Amino acid sequence: MPKVYENVGCPYCGCSCDDVRVTVSDDGKKVLEVENVCAIGTEIFKHGSSEHRIRLPRLRQPDGSTKDISYEEAIEWTAQRLYKAKKPLMYGFGSTNCEGQAAAARVMESAGGCLDNCATICHGPSFLAIFDNGYPTCTLGEVKNRADVIVYWGSNPAHAHPRHMSRYSIFPRGFFTGKGQKKRTVIVIDPRYTDTANVADIHVRVKQGHDYELFDAFRMVMHGHGDDLPDVVADVPKEQILQVAEIMSKARFGTVFYGMGLTHSDGRNHNIDIAISLMRDMNKVTKWTIMAMRGHYNIAGPGVVWSWTFGFPYCLDLTKKNYAHMNPGETSSVDMAMRDEVDMFINIGTDAGAHFPIPAVQHLKKHPWVTIDPSVCMASEIADLHIPVCICGVDTGGIVYRMDNVPIQFRQVLDPQGLLTDEELLNKIADRVDELNAKGA
Amino acid sequence: MAENNTLNMITQRAFEEGVAMEIGKTSPEYFDACNIIEMNEQDMKRLGILKNTNVRVTSESGQVIVKAVVGRQTVYPGLCHIRQGVWANQVVPPRTQSTGTPQYSGFPVTVEPAPEEKLKTALHLVQGAVGMWKGEE
Question: pLDDT tens for residues A199-215?
């Protein structure tokens, strides 16, 4: 009899949907059906039982081919190089559970290296702004139950968070929002006419890279200087700025969801900083909240786990072992790569090969490169050693933090068939590094 | 605009890219989803680029051949978009304004017609960049 698992978590985007229904063959090895999930999530569950999955570590040979080796050999290979490296870097964690992230912290503390997560190339600027200016946020449940005005600024959930609008923001009927979409006003601020803009009531077409000016214009209106606005700010007509400010200030409860449009553009953390300041202005007249559209299902996780372990969410320098230090620009992965400061690279639960600018990949590849990932990806295809592991939410469970920092228990639906979890693998590597350190001392 | 073939490039997510990425980055789906540049029709006319033909995109840090399309999610004249991934990252500048986050959006590129040039696969581009590519050039 096939087994049906209810309320399964989806390991794709920051929505971390936990209402997925998965039907699995009676031997626990094949996913037969996936329901309540977007097309991207479906592919992840299908991939879990793909016959093409890598199930043994692969070590690169001098001729460029790879040879299957045992987990024990892979752990020894990695631990030896970590022990020898002066400044190894472990980066990734978009797709790992919190248990794995805690074990990674143990490895890098023992090895004396740097530890960084995908936020460094994603919502890192948000952290910097939040440190400086606070974070007037809420949970996605509050948005669903209370929000009557939604702003998506520099984010495109129709593509990046496929169920965000239907589960949390625009369409659901909540406790105080019983009419759903009919009683909500949706504003999309984006230089492109995105598919999200297509379902919005108002699309504000801002000039790319000039978001700061537009935030500033909204702040002027909120401070009573709307009349002094120029006719056009960041390509947006004054009339539209006044119209949007009016809608926002008349909201009962509003939320700004912002994305990479702000953090990847000129200004970086300053764009987020002024967004938070605008929320402070709005909160003088009504209730407004702001939330980062985190990209992966547990990319909020390392920020939480490492903050309670070391005091910092990302860009951690643990080379001094007994105390941590964080300074983006200095201890951030891409900057260290570009300055050739790291002498070993471990890519885990992400794909730096595909998603770092290629000059950074070229620098990192000068040194030993280990990829810990369930899939064949660019990082596995240029690695010296590829170690396959369980997919969180498919072959193993674990705690994940949703984009609003709500922890959710993910479930295992497939038999891992001998694959190690990130946590098991990393703890074994940490044990071996500890042994080497003890011998060396 | 500084030079008349200079455009402002942004690289962001797309649903098709997400699905293809989970199928696999060496799959034909990923190849089709990510090696395109979305442009405004006016810019294409001005630069002598025909729809669905290949173009060479050059930035301060590299160049890549991609296919020019108009796309459903339109951009205004002067702006262009390559979906995040291997092709985009051949041209994304690694400068971070001291935040750790590279300039994935808002950097100048030149776009010129290159109808005779071939599109390279993801593996070719990444392994090629680090001297590991063993296939045909």
Answer: 999 999 999 999 999 99
